[in-house]
Amino acid sequence: MLQQTQVSRVLEKFDPFIERFPTLEALAEADEDDVLAMWSGLGYYRRARSLHACAQEAVTKFGGLPECSGELEELKGIGRYTAGAIASIVHNQPVPIVDGNVERVLLRIEGKELRSGEPATRDWCWQRAEELVECAHKSRTQAVSPAVFNEALMELGALVCTPRSPSCPACPVREGCKAFAASKQDAIPLPKSRKAKKPLHKACLIITNEESRLLISQRPKGGLWGGLWQVPTLESDSKLPKAGVAEHFGVATTAIIREDSFIHETTHRSVVVVVYRTRETVPGLAGRWVGADETAELATGSLQDRVMRLGFESAKGRE
Q1: For 69-105, how does the pLDDT look when each residue is reduced to its tens digit (9 = 90+)?
Q2: I want to staple 66 with a disulfide (CB 3.0 to 4.6 A). Which of 71, 213, 225, 232 is the partner?
Q3: Residue-wise pLDDT tens digits, 19-48
Q4: What is the DSSP letter of 112?
């Protein structure tokens, strides 16, 4: 949940999620739609599907969650970082964890002028972190547990060796820091190379019935927003003219009214959303009619949450 999501948002969702799925077995046995609904609002729904699949695979293959980092990495959705975190922090195994904070600390201590996020940078950091955690674990004078060592590295980066204006005077390892010695702590690591986001255009059509219920349908499993609920939506990599939207849904251009437009940013896409509404009956559109009080139980995503709220407000305004 904490991957690319603010702690404050996770705090709202964590306890209800754990109450609904208190054990690995409970999560494994749950329906995917239920898991997505409990995840709704956190975004990046691929994480929820991977978590669900991981629980199923762990129960089937290992009878529970394994302790070894190598076996953990065999499970869907668990990469090297998560495997290292579980193995070292929970089971105290001498394996490394490298996140953005640890990467920054290691690069500054060693004075490595490498670019964040690059494969070569990541490979070097993992190798160095592995050497350090094993050294700390095997020290004859003052052995440090892998859990304590890894958490200390992460906290050092989060609280002291921050991306901007690091608190070097308060740093316990500044005497051995090559970046500090060369006054390059603000220049290391080198900034990430930024790629322009690919645009995605969405035309969303609000259709309500006489009871102010909204027509929605579920997206196919897999892909971006897979398995989530939405109003009838047309997507394209290029702009969608009103006439083309009307033709796609099988209504006259004059029968749809532009209600709103906004930009929705994802990690890799800049989504241009135009919302239309119609009072016409649109034949051939499958789905279900829902009231405003029913959407909380569905996995929708923040983009469609906004569109649906607009749809219910529009219907209420016409009552």
Answers
A1: 999 999 988 899 999 999 999 999 999 999 999 999 9
A2: 71
A3: 999 999 999 999 998 999 899 888 778 889
A4: -
CB 102 within 8 A of CB 109: no
Is the entire prediction scored with pTM above 0.85? Answer: no
> What is the three-class DSSP state of 156?
helix
Where helices occur in the chain by DSSP H, the ranges are: 7-20, 24-29, 32-39, 46-62, 69-72, 80-85, 100-110, 119-138, 146-155, 178-181, 242-249, 302-317
Superfamily (CATH H level) for 7-90? Hypothetical protein; domain 2 (1.10.340.30)
Helix/strand/coil for 276: strand
Give the 3-state secondary structure of residue 53: helix
- What class, spelled out in words, does domain 100-181 have in CATH? mainly alpha
Enumerate residues 6+ apart whose C-beta is below 8 A from 73.
Answer: 79, 80, 83
**What percent of the chain is helix, strand and coil (3-state, nearest 5)?**
45, 15, 40
Tokens of residue 121, six digits: 């940078």
DSSP classification of residue 206:
E
The DSSP code for 88 is: I
Domain positions in the chain are 7-90, 100-181, 198-317
H-type alpha helices, 205-281: 242-249
